[in-house]
Amino acid sequence: MKKLLLCLALIGLGLLVGTFVPSVSNSIRQVAGFALPPPSKSDDGHGHGAGGHAEGEKEGPEGHVVMTAEQIEAAKIGVAEAAGGALARKLTVPGTVTTDADRVARIAGKVVGTVAEMRKRLGETVAKGEVVAVLDSREVAEARSEFFAARTNLDLQQTLFEREQALWDKRISAEQQFLRARQTFTEAQLRVELASQKLQALGFSEADIEQLATRYAPVRTAAAGSGAPVARTMSNLQKYEIRSPIAGRVIERLVDLGSPVGGESEAKELYVVADLSSVWIDLAVPSGDLLAIREGQDVSISAGNGSEPSKGRIVFVSPILNQETRSARVIAAVDNKDMTWRPGSYVTAQVLVSEEPVDIKVPRTALQAIGGEQVVFVRNEKGFEKREVVLGKADDTSVEVVFGLDPGEKIAATNSFVLKAELGKAEAEHVH
């Protein structure tokens, strides 16, 4: 009876201990004399049944994250190659978009008159040399009349001079008569030159004056019998055309039809035309940063609205400081063919001050802090592995890697925080 009770006690103890320690369970089976079925081959002895996988098979070895190419793409993890480059030191300053002073024209009438035509509307494009307005001007009519009279008199005096010269050469006329004709002809030439200079002062070019002389010059006709010149009919002498000196767009229209212009207390300008294919960025640089600024430096311009920044170049650094702000005016020229930048807008400019080459640099988005260490995730056949790195110098976007990474290795450059989260999840599951 005692032997039977002892056997039952041993069996109960074996069943209890065998659940946790298989080796002890087998010994108790032998002592008790019972042949319990051995563990199933599908049981790995660590609590995993048939078809189960160890946690290590899901996350891989410690510090590894197993991911397929499809999973990497779905997580939008950008992979880039570790390589050398240059770290840029940049100075960030506020700025304002302004028009390029070399590409703005304020179109004015140089004469006193009345606006007869306004050929351009606000916002319309203008070609260089295109007529944008027409004035009616008595001043222009008088200047043209004076020029035409001088030219007509010149033709007459030239004919008389040539006649007197021929007679003098044949000793038919007196020398005094020849000298008087030559002096009168010279005075006529001078009057034509003075009338021409007056027209040029009113804005007429030499080509315009020559065209006027041809258009209104007297003509000789055989029907006149004696070959006397017949004057052309003159009209529109008061019309004065105003042309644009540059190509661009009309950004201001300052007068209306019928407005008097050019006189005292009257408007002088008719249009403002600007070529906005290139604009200026007016920067205010503190005096302490001026030593790092020089003409020719590259500038990156951004509006802070998520749009792509534009590249520009510094074209002017003022040698004079603003007495109130203790800053200097710096101007950068930026291409604006797509009309991204509008004069008057506030922008932020980053001036490239210097560049320093490094053997290996990685983007800041590739770095993660784990356990007080800076790590990157290096791409391998099964996914990524955590790699501790030693960092060096840095700029706004990149950091130098001094130790822990070799050139050519591929790393998770963007969205590396996803890998950090997966790694932390795996370590938490191991703890439990």
TrEMBL record:
Residue span(s) of domain CzcB-like C-terminal circularly permuted SH3-like: 360-420
Highest taxon of source: Bacteria
Organism the protein comes from: Enterovirga aerilata
NCBIfam families per record: RND_mfp
Protein name: Efflux RND transporter periplasmic adaptor subunit
One Pfam family, short name: CzcB_C
Annotated GO biological process: copper ion export; plasma membrane copper ion transport
GO terms assigned for molecular function: transition metal ion binding; transmembrane transporter activity
